[in-house]
Structure to design on (854 residues):
């Protein structure tokens, strides 16, 4: 390939030349150099903390660079705001949404770029244009809908529509499919192909290597703040990609499955449990030492089912824990009640519900089992001891024990969150999307951790949108569709296609609940 | 395009990229800010008026600080948990009025004036706890914003006092008043009783906040209520208790305050809520909750009353501008704290 020039009208060619970024004394990017030709789809790979996000923030004007040069169409650029980057057609779609919940979809799409008629807003035009952008991403909703009424996957599509409405010529997508179902993902890929045909450059950041393989033209790998390698996608295998990211040979991702003794009495048995509006008449049980998966599309009611079980939503049904029924037919009153009876839950929303990111590691770890450290006064020494042990046990990588949780990488935060929900020594633990937004190395660590927990006799329930993960890790997989548990399948010989068929309702004839 | 390159990595372990998780020296400075401010004020006060640096004056300042300071300790819990209570001044007034009415009735009725006073003091604390409980229940079970609930009771409490006092003042009967007076005027080891109580309340508050599971829960809820809820913290109970604690603090402050004037009027406790909240904020606690300190709150309360003391002792700025100076201090402190976290 030769140095890219702007051939297509309005195309964006990017060249990073020795880009350096430091936050205070800590250097995050150590002279990154590579270039992006217009109209191609690039997969940007790297573990958490490799510097991908930082580099993309520099490209889209959210962070200034500390050294080196960023050239757009041959011109050196020093963006001081994302607006300047947007003016050149460079738009970053955030991993965490940047949307105002109380505004309408159209108002969100044009936020900061409102169309006006004289002094007044031109709502009619904005709604028309928003409708066009929504149609382009295949989202069929009224642009006047308030954003808070949308489900997560729809919000993701609104983010993309926003970029399209701003005439993006280079689109950075950071984990766009983390919240999407397989069907929505397919639609996104079609959209990407269409944008590419229009000459839009796309930088696709994802931990899902199968998607990277499917959708990108070329992969670029970063590691520890440095450029490592680039190659046309068809020339590298997933295995090679993973190895390049981690920098070492990656053994099999999933631990070997242990056999569960079938005769064991269930640790938890749930009978005709309903969460009004979300789940109806759900029956399942999980045995000690078993890993039970929960598959389903976004909105199938999996998270809500368990929130109902924990008393976070109104719910009702029969629940038995180690053979003892929960007294009133309502599940537990609150998570505290559930934890006392041996059930704990790790939320899918790590920053919003899982960890106090502004708290120290110690305070986070011990929060659920604080009584153990209060006799009656808190014993910081005992807490520190527990933390040191957890750091070792769960392989949490941190420079010091006295840092805030926010200073850990995503994967290590997740390990800390996992350690936290296991502190009360539960009998059953529910892990909701335990590897979301986590790099492949940490993923593998978490899988082996889960297996170890099961071996120790814990009943583990894994809710996940990654089908491969469920198939690779679980003994049985329960599939939910529209609030009902439609099938419970043995994970041996289970295929992704089969799971999708049950989740989407195309396998109704085989359903057995 | 640059040639394909394969940089060998010397250390495959992921580097610690953002190591600023540790509290930095600037944050320690923030913690020391109120103390430094207080020291500077005291130096200034000493230079301006030789009467400032006397034991008498110091005790005077601390005694005056005690009421707001005790309430501020309770307020500190409420604010750290992410709540607010605007009603404490009115609550103090209504408690004061109720206690006076009760003692005036119970003194002759029971035949034991001492018993009546003791029961009155107990009543103050019980009433405070009940009002706090009502706040807590309305806020958690009733799911109403704390600002709204306590704005409502701010009006309610004071109106009822005004009604009971018939627009005038409720006054403690003379002999009972004499019996009650030592609670405010007496000293132990040269230190006035209210100051002792303030010290004890502050120490208990500090221990609860920093050394008990409950204190940790209060901080966890203020930092992120959802995370706390999912982490099996009984959020409602912890929040209700913060308001009860504050109510108890208001009760204690009031029972110390009643013998000072021996009466309660519609102006009793006026603007105490502002001073208590200001003490907490000046002490370095973020209004949005999550973190804060009792020590800071105590220093903040003292700092505010030192300001008014200096204005009283000197004639540089009119005493009438006392509230204005305090207001400026609050805004300056907020300005210095902005952008943290």
């Amino acid at each position: 390939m030769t140095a890219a020039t702007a051939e297509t009208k309005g195309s964006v060619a990017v060249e990073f030349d020795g880009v350096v970024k430091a936050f205070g004394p800590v250097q995050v990017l150590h002279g990154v150099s590579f270039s992006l030709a217009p109209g191609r789809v690039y997969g940007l790979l790297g573990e958490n903390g490799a510097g991908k996000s930082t580099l993309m923030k520099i490209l889209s004007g959210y962070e200034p660079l500390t050294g080196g040069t960023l050239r757009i169409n041959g011109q050196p650029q020093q963006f001081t705001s994302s607006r300047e980057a947007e003016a050149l057609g460079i738009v970053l779609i955030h991993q965490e949404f940047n949307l105002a919940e109380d505004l309408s979809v159209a108002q969100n799409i044009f936020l900061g770029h409102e169309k006006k008629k004289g002094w007044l807003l031109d709502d009619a035009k904005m709604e028309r244009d928003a409708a066009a952008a929504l149609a382009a991403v295949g989202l069929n909703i009224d642009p006047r809908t308030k954003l808070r009424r949308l489900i997560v996957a729809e919000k993701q599509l609104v983010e993309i529509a926003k970029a399209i409405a701003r005439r993006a010529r280079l689109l950075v997508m950071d984990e766009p499919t983390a919240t999407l179902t397989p069907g929505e993902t397919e639609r996104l890929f079609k959209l990407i192909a269409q944008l590419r045909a229009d000459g839009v450059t796309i930088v696709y950041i994802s931990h899902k290597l199968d998607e990277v393989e499917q959708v990108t033209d070329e992969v670029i790998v970063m590691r520890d703040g440095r450029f490592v390698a680039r190659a046309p996608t068809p020339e590298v295998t997933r295995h090679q990609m993973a190895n390049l990211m981690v920098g070492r040979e990656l053994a099999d991702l999933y631990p070997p499955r242990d056999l569960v003794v079938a005769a064991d009495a269930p640790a938890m048995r749930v009978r005709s449990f309903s969460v009004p509006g979300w789940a109806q008449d759900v029956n399942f049980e999980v045995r000690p030492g078993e890993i039970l998966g929960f598959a389903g599309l976004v909105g199938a009611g999996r998270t809500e089912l368990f929130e109902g079980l924990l008393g976070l939503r109104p719910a009702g049904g029969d629940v038995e824990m180690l053979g003892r029924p929960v007294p009133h037919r309502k599940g537990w009153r609150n998570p505290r009640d559930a934890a006392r009876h041996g059930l704990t839950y790790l939320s899918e929303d790590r920053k919003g519900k899982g960890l106090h990111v502004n708290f120290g590691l110690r305070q986070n770890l011990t929060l659920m089992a604080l009584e153990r450290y209060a006799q009656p006064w808190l014993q910081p020494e005992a807490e520190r001891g527990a933390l040191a042990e957890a750091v070792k046990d769960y392989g949490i990588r941190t420079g010091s024990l006295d840092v805030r949780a926010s200073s850990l990488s995503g994967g290590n935060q997740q390990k800390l969150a996992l350690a936290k929900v296991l502190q009360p020594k539960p009998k059953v633990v529910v892990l909701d999307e335990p590897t979301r937004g986590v790099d492949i190395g940490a993923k593998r660590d978490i899988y082996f951790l889960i297996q170890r927990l099961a071996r120790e006799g814990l009943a583990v329930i894994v809710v996940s949108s990654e089908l491969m993960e469920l198939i690779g890790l679980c003994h049985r997989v329960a599939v939910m569709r529209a609030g009902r548990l439609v099938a419970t399948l043995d994970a041996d010989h289970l295929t992704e296609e089969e799971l999708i068929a049950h989740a989407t309702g195309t396998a109704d004839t085989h359903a057995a609940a | 395009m640059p040639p394909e390159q394969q940089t060998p990595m010397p250390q495959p372990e992921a580097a610690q990229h953002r190591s600023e998780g540790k509290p930095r020296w600037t944050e320690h400075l923030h913690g020391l800010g109120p103390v430094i401010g207080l020291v500077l004020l005291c130096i200034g006060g000493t230079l301006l008026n030789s009467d400032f640096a006397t034991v008498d004056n110091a005790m005077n300042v601390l005694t005056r600080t005690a009421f707001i300071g005790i309430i501020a300790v309770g307020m500190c819990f409420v604010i750290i948990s992410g709540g607010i209570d605007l009603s404490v001044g009115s609550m103090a007034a209504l408690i004061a009025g109720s206690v006076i009415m009760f003692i005036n009735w119970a003194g002759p009725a029971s035949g034991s004036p001492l018993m009546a006073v003791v029961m009155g003091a107990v009543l103050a604390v019980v009433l405070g706890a009940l009002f706090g409980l009502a706040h807590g229940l309305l806020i958690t079970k009733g799911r109403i914003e704390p600002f709204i609930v306590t704005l409502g009771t701010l009006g309610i409490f004071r109106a009822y006092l005004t009604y009971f006092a018939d627009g005038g003042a409720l006054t403690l009967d003379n002999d009972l008043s004499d019996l009650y007076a030592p609670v405010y005027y007496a000293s132990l080891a040269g230190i006035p009783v209210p100051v002792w109580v303030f010290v004890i309340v502050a120490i208990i508050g500090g221990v609860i906040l920093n050394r008990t599971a409950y204190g940790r829960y209060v901080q966890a809820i203020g930092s992120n209520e959802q995370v706390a809820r999912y982490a099996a913290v009984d959020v409602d109970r912890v929040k209700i208790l913060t308001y009860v604690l504050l109510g108890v603090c208001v009760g204690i402050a009031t029972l110390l305050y009643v013998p000072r004037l021996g009466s309660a009027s519609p102006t009793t406790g006026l603007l105490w809520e502002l001073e208590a909240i200001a003490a907490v904020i000046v002490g370095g606690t973020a209004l949005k909750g999550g973190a804060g300190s009792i020590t800071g709150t105590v220093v903040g309360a003292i700092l505010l009353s030192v300001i008014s003391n200096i204005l009283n002792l000197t004639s540089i700025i009119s005493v009438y501008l006392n509230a204005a100076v305090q207001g400026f201090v609050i805004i300056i402190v907020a300005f210095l704290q902005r952008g943290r976290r």
Notes: The radius of gyration of chain A is 24 Å. Chain A touches chain B through 72 residues (CB under 8 Å). Residues 1-9, 509-513 of chain A have pLDDT under 50 and may be disordered.
